[in-house]
Amino acid sequence: MPCEAFEDRLIDYSELGSADVQAVNTHLEHCSECRSFLSALAGIDAALTAAFADHTVSPEFSKRVTHTVLSHPALHRPSLVPEMLDAIGWAAVISILLWLTAFFVPGVEFSTPLAVTIGLLALMGGFAVAYRCYDDLRRC
Amino acid sequence: MNEIEQQIRSLLDQGRNAQAFELLISHFQNKVFRLAYSIVGSRSWAEDTAQDIFVRIWKALDSYRGQASLSTWIYTIARNTSLSALHAAIAKRTVSMDDPGVQSKADRAGPTQRSCDGGLDLDLLLAQLPETQRRAITLFYMEDKSYQEVARLLDLPMGTVKTYLHRARKHLAAAALESRMKKERVDAV
In B, what residues contact A, Cβ < 8 A? Predict the structure, then answer.
């Protein structure tokens, strides 16, 4: 095993400053253990360089990925529109229920402006629900 | 942000996602593949994982709003997907040790056994390292020995990368030295 005082400097030998390199080289002249350790490090470095240099994907990779990706439609940004359409639809349902109440429950009467408002809400709700259904079908 | 990233961002802003994706894949495929390789440890597995990563990127492309740089966003998806693949494989192996789809840690490097000085099995040596050190040293040699790239890809501080590499080299050299000494003793006998 290498000398404790030089082990770290041997591991980082390629990044040492000139003063450290000189100190390590002087030590290496007299220490066979450290010379062996440095030689082992160089062997590991050469083997790793040979094993991992120029690692790239196979040539057909991007074609394969593009083909796969085309079968996965991209997700769209979350939109508030469907939620708003749902809210309008529910408002319409409530309006219709209120209207039916006015028609069939004795003693309950609405003023004309309120009845018109409820009617308009019901109409808008109808459109909203219809559009939502159309949109859902289009996405299928 | 470099020129390619700017081009991709501009295409995305124009809603030309398919073109943006083509540019993205040609620019990032090797980086993503290497990052996946450093985590999963085998070539074929890394390619499959890289493919999954790009599918995820494609699906999420519309939600990318530029809050992080494009490369940071891509590497985060790549790391998370690779780690999920690795953890899923480990969990699968725990359930069934005989599953042929799950390779052991030692044979993850594939059919070609790489050796280093003195006929030492490099893949076996790497497999003995802690995961963090193995990832760092694999990426370091794949990325032209750039500490900065390793730090960027693994999202680690540069000092941490240097520490991992230092420890990995120390471990590998000690193992190589020990093996060489054993061989010399056997030869002497």
Answer: 17, 21-22, 25-26, 29-30, 33-34, 37, 43, 47, 50-51, 54-55, 58-63, 114-118, 120, 122, 125, 137-138, 141-142, 144, 166, 169-170, 172-174, 176-177, 180
CA distance B181 to B177: 6
What is the rounded CA–CA span in Å between residue A52 and residue B142? 5
How large a percentage of chain B has pLDDT more than 70?
Answer: 86
The pTM (predicted TM-score) of the whole model is: 0.70
**What pLDDT shows up at residue B38?**
93
Distance from C-alpha of A60 to C-alpha of A71, rounded to nearest angstrom: 17
What is the number of alpha carbons within 13 Å of residue B177 lying toward its C-beta?
Answer: 19
Q: The tokens of B38 are what?
A: 């450093």
Q: Is B132 exposed, middle or buried (0-12, 13-18, 19+ CB in 10 A)?
A: middle
> Which tens digits make up the pLDDT trace of B116-153?
555 667 888 888 899 999 999 999 999 999 999 999 99
Q: Decide: A38 and A10 in contact? Cβ < 8 Å.
A: yes
Nearest by CB to residue B34, choosing from A36, A55, A76, is: A55
Q: Are B143 and B150 in contact (CB under 8 A)?
A: yes
Give helix A32-52 / helix A18-30 axis angle, nearest 10°: 120
Decide: A58 and A104 in contact? Cβ < 8 Å: no
Q: Max alpha carbon distance in chain A (Å)?
A: 113
Question: What span, in angstroms and rounded, lies between the C-alpha atoms of B100 and B89?
Answer: 11
Averaged pLDDT, B51-74: 87
